[in-house]
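ok so for the tutorial part 2 we go from a plain amino acid sequence to predicted structure tokens. step 1 is just haveing the sequence, like this:
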Amino acid sequence: MTSTDVHEVGRAAQLPTRRDEGVLDLEVIELRRESDRVLSVLLADPARRLLPEWEPGAHIDLGLPEQVRQYSLCGDPADRRAYRIAVLREDASRGGSEYVHTVLRPGERVEVGGPRNRFPLVQAAEYVFVAGGIGITPMLPMIEAVRAGGGPWRLLYSGRSLRSMAFVDRLGADPCVEVRDGRFDLAAALGAPRAGVAVYCCGPAPLIEAMELACAAWPAGTLHVERFAATLHDTADDVPFDVVARRTGVRVTVPAGESALDVLEAAGVELPHACREGICGSCETPVLAGLPEHRDELTDPDVVDRVMPCVSRARTPELVLDA
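step 2 — the prediction. this is what the tokens look like for a chain of 323 residues:
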């Protein structure tokens, strides 16, 4: 997703992961141009050992100099010899996409966390996939799995221009695929609300907002989304709250304007983390007491037994965490 040796520089920003997930040290074995703005990266174990299993919708955390970025796996889950990701060269890159496109080269090593799946393919009678730009990447293995199963499905794939849209050739001349360099009439494309349909959407925020509106009258749980960036929350009314890390015996106060993750780290409590934006799920921590206020993009508002401390806060004066 980011002339020095990336293997050595990456150590300075070592990739944190869940306690039950290791960090892989992988080699870049191929860079391939997928469109005029998208580069795919193939990663393998330097000794060519098999990589951990994954399912459609999974992503990896890619450790780059001074940052960690999340990228969806878009290869074949049955092929455990390598992971493929695709990186869009952003107009306003924070460093990750620019690094991949201009610095990263075959033979170099990168640290990889995961795979982790927060966008799983659920069982359904029918599927509708809606992708905007680089949002096509998590859907490629989903579509191939649904194709193999023989059930009904459709893909609506839009982008700025056809030249900028990756993997069009891989999708093939399938009547279930509609590719457009412009917007779809989503309500018309989806049709009348009905049960048994799983709608998947990944892309920029305006597309996801339009999909949420188009699916508002559909049965609960129909729409599944994955976002590129976290939703901004109004912090004007934030108040301090206490966090107790039960296993380590640490109590801290989280002021307004600071994250629980940062305050716990400063007190010596180490938690796994990667994005610090509430979109990757790596810092998820069990809640033993108190009510969390979820501000991440992954957790339903009514969930009370876990929290993402990188962005979320508390609805009670105290949260007790298994940390």
